[in-house]
Structures
1.
Amino acid sequence: MVQSHPREGGDPSLAGRPREGGGPITIAVLPGDGIGREVMDACLELLEALQAKGGMPRLECTKYDAGAQHYAKSGEALPAATLDAARKADAVLFGAMGWPDIRYPDGTEPIPQLDLRMALDLYAGVRPIRWFPGLPKVLSDPRAEKMDFVLIREQTEGLFYARGKGKVENDAEAYDTMQITRRGTSRVSEFAFRMAAQRAAEGRPAKVTCIDKSNVFTSMAFFRKVFDDVAAKHPLVEKNYAYVDAMALDMVRKPWTLGVMVTENMFGDILSDLAAGLIGGMGMASSADIGDDHGLFQPAHGTAPDIAGQGKANPSAMFLSAGLMLEWLAHRHDDPRLLAAARRIEKALEHVLANKIAVPTEYGGAAGTAAMTSAVIAALDVAPA
């Protein structure tokens, strides 16, 4: 699902680049705050067990400091050494960051994940949504079990462009500016159409829907215009349009009809949480932040201060995010062994959930972080490469 794409206008053959020298794949690990640390330790245990099975390149995982709690101790949310390590690594594996009581002097929260998106130009936020057997059936329509769509969120501009640039005038008015550029919209739309073509080849829903509010905002009408320009280069892929409010309705009413959706930053931020709710909650919500040169992979949930340190966190989203990382690395380095390893993680988790070998506490079961991790590791043998 998550491919590595060449730069706009570049040679498509450069999307897959075999590793030089056969050395280990370097992973910059940023555990973060709260349950981010707990699910990251679980994920590293799973990756170590997967490598012990053989048949895949060695992953060299190194932890680095970042996050709100690190900021409280050191005054730095994203140390320069951590950012440098993220730039140099083959991929970044990210836990969760943020803490309600830790703020910058202006009242905003330290959010290193946003800083990393901008610093590494991670313009495509990929949020895959698939219902797994054994998960709660949030929607009563049995067709909802077939939902399998992906939301792609432009991540370097949109309304988030205003972060740190807003202004308050005379304690009476406040302004934040949305930025939509041709470059930003073109590349994320291109990403969406290429992903749709890949999904079509796999027999999965592949229609690309542009989500906007072009009936109201000039910036959104421009977003749709640029989307259309990119769509014209992909005549074999069906395109569609939806206003963001109508899409919020359709995601609940008929999510099994959705394929690939592409949208602005803020709209994507909101719709991705709604999408997670359709499959039982944030504990199953994996994500990938992709650029031309870098990839960062993290669960979409937060740090959950209410359960941090209690061993109750569901590591499934973290596991699936690691699977997305392996899949992206497989495409980037033209290594099918990594793709097989990614599929093995997904199949092992699916086996555990479908057979109720372990039911996360999030869904009314008794399995905390450790029990879920042990069950998925044991199921790796049921899902051979």
2.
Amino acid sequence: MYGPQSGIGWPQVYRYPPLFLLLFIPFALLPLRFAAILWAALKFTVLGLLARSLFSRLGTHGLVWQLLSFLPALPYLAVEFHYGNVQFFIFALAGAALLCLDERPVLAALALALAISVKVAPLFFVPYLIVRKRIAVAALALALTAALTLLPAGYFGWHTNVSLLHQWVQQELGIAATAGEPGIIGFPSQSLHSVLMRFLVSLNYGELTDSNYPKLNLGSFDPLMVELLWFVLAGAGYAGLLFLARQRSQSDNLTIHGVAFCMLLLLEPFTQMGDLVILFWPICIAVAVLRDDADLPAWIRAALYAALALTVLKPLVPDRTMQRLFQVLGVDFAATCLLAAGLIGKCLWKPYSAAIPAIPNKDSGLAKRRPAGTTQPKTTMRE
């Protein structure tokens, strides 16, 4: 799979740790067509289980509401399933970990550890769990990650496993630190890093397979300075997420998790189209919020409606030139920002509650105020 004999170039950009090679062996032993069918069938099965669990937690019952939850996420699911990437399984493992935190903490730690061991991005959730006071789960996830990372040594041998890990780390660091967009991934990505690069650096699309993306840069700054700007903004954004997660009560779990998924997409160095399958969780939360909270502030509802409209309408534009323009403009980036803003607003918003009844003193002539919906007890002439 790796190396000059892979047939897809070297050094290879899309790499996984050695553990993924072990997990993939059963598929490699099967005929290609059957392996592809099995891979897709597993994805549909996992999607069904994840959706059922999430809908149950949200109280999203009835076919209409469930279809409305799927519809805005359908373009991202279709793209990821078509690519045949492992990203959906990584998202499902992280989602399962968050859903199992209270009832099955050991299973949650194992799911998160497996996700981190295959693709490092879910490490994003370890500090998040710590500030959410799930320290034991976070610590166990790290320990299991270390064990799973070393596990392939039993198959490859210690030195080969270390060599593969070293190559993978070097490749990851090279991708994360590069200012050479968009050539490193081949098309405009939808992260904050990529959007800053497209608007503030003069990029060269000529070497891409599709060189017809429009150049819309507003300036031609030093890429290293833009990298530094992204690093500062990403650090501030992550710190803000941790602060929000620490302040909000456990009753906000599903919504806070939705914010965390959005922030992962926004703050990581590169967000490919297949990575946007993560938006399935925030979209389900947004639909439930719009359904249940009729007295939400107008700006929160507007942000969520706008995000859902963008995800539904963008794929319906048939023109390839417009689709290229949408990618360069960062329409999916904007939809993710709107989802994050709406869900953050939902977390911070406190619904109106009835005024606390005033308790009069003995000499006061004030009548006690009662919440709406209660009846005034009958009084006697003496009273």
3.
Amino acid sequence: MQDQTTPIPVNTPTAQTDIKGELEEARLPLDPRTIIQACLLVLASLAIAYVAADIILPLVLAFVLKLLFQPVMRQLERLRLPRSIAALLMIFVFFGLFVGLGAAVAGPATEWATRLPEALPRLQERLSVLSRPIQTFQSFMQQIGAGGGANVDILGAAFRGTQHFASGFFETILILYFLLVSGDTFLRRMVEILPRFSDKRQVVTLSQQIEENISIYLATITVMNGLVGLATGLTMWATGLGDPILWGVVAFALNFVPIIGPFFGVALFAFAGLLQFDTMLAAFLPAGLYLVIHLIEGEIVTPMLLARRFTLNPVLIILALIFWFWLWGAPGAILAVPMLAILKIICDGVGPLNNIGRFLEA
């Protein structure tokens, strides 16, 4: 559903000219032992990412958010605002909006959830083809309402999930704050450690490429998703579905997950329409209008803003979404494309990895 050629800027010609000139003759190593060692390193890294997800996921999320905030931080520094105060300001604004939107949609989402068990019989009549799955779901909902022990188990699981989310949320804020305050400290230390000038220049160039391109991508996608959410909210209000803030936030969040997110959004709006309206035309109108909004954004506006020549292979995007969703859940799906783009930038800038970079292209 999401534009399969949604571009991610991963190249800037001026930034890569010098590096490619120096490493033009470099090739991927053909030594079987080196290839086996590299594969084992990748598998070990993925195993650590799975086992230590509680630590690594907040770290990766904070790093990606740092890339998003870095251009604004530089502007605040030009205004002679101390980095510590600028970092606090950025965090308060961003996460304040995040918490505010969550509080705004909590009420409408709860109301729709309470309507669901009563509306299932009506929905079952309208979609007789799906009668068996609906009956199973309805039986599950009735067991939740009748069984006291089940309620205790579900509340305990919900509490544990809330506690886990709150812990990761705090870690992300803490790591993000110190990353923003540190600025380019780690980059300077790495440049000091490297022995050769060519290596120093390569690291600086790659760092600048990653920061510039990923920040442009994230900022553009965030603004476009915000406009999609605004248009979706107004459209749902105009069609009579109601709760424009809820549906706008849902569309905004789903659009961060390419292809899979908008596909799920179409199904969600169709389901909500069937619960809300009597006629089939009115029921599927919200989903159809949401699809139109998404196609305009994904097929026309976003490719025009990010330039079509900077693309990632859509098949690899799908595989990355599925894999990171399995590994880290919804945050992993959101981070999948930025991490794939960062990998592409690194492979394009390091000679022996150029072939991998070409493989990642559309």
4.
Amino acid sequence: MLEVVLTYFVCIGGFLAVLLAVRQVIAQKRELANFLRSFLLVVSSIVLYGYALLANKVCLEYPILVFMYFTSAFLLGPMYLFTINSLLGIKKSMQKIDILHFLPAIMVFIGEIIFQLQDPAFKLDVLRVFLTAPTQSPLVYLLLAAIASNMAYEFAVIKSIFEFWTNQEIKREVRIIGVRLGASVLSLSLFTAGMLLANPVLILSGGTVHTGIIVSMFITQDYYPQFFFALRKEIRRKYYEHSLLQGLNTDVIRNRLEELMNDEQIYKDMDLNLQSLAGKLSMTQHQLSQFLNEQMKANFRNYVNGYRVREARRLLAHDGKMSISSICYEVGFNSKSTFYTVFKEVTGKTPREIRDEIQIKA
């Protein structure tokens, strides 16, 4: 009974994927993303129906029904990556080199045509071994290769999305994609286990999770049509900021910045700000901010205060006659409260506690 219910659900997912694919093609504003997404959905539909056919062993009676399943399995990964990158505005057109991603699928497609031209008895024997004793069938290696390929592409998408995980502007969108990616990995894992163990319930469970992803896409498209707009906007902003550093010699900037801090000790200037420091480096404020974030892994405040606290610790250790208040202003802080707050944030202790420890050791 459970297998029947799961089979129906997976088939519904395949049908829904086809409907979504048609909607992409007839959309008023058709872009590369629409066609890629439509192709991805068609491929997903074939894979979902394949789950149902393999789990119920229907292809043992009609081998032709398994045609295009393995090809679609190899297409799923690259199509997903290209679709996501297109929707996010990262990929604006297909290039000739992109064909390399589809070479495995093309080779498998040729192999499937050759297989379907074989004697019916031979095809039935091959499929019977594959479905009843998969570890003894050469087809299992083809299946595992397809799954490994899909996993690799899944993690490639995860890598491109992960850098935005803490971005509060697009927190919801990134989390939704993250859940979908996790569900996709789970679907592949269940399907793999089901095929290796010849367990139809596990196979259909993988298809059920995949169907859940299709349903979430349907809901997102209807109730949140601007889902990818916020993501695309944030990614473009990040690429723009990154492009600000293009053409600049970051090594020269880093060396000059260290000279200003270590040799000239400009951090002691209470009026030092992002604009004045950028001027000393012949950069714009945006370029300096991006440089500090990407190259120094800190914002302007934390970067400068790091030098101030370091100098304060040195003075506390080597100048016992200098008061803490004097040290505060000497290193560049313009208020004692700020000095105490920043000092404890960096060291975990107050200036007084540090001085007392030094005196006890002495």
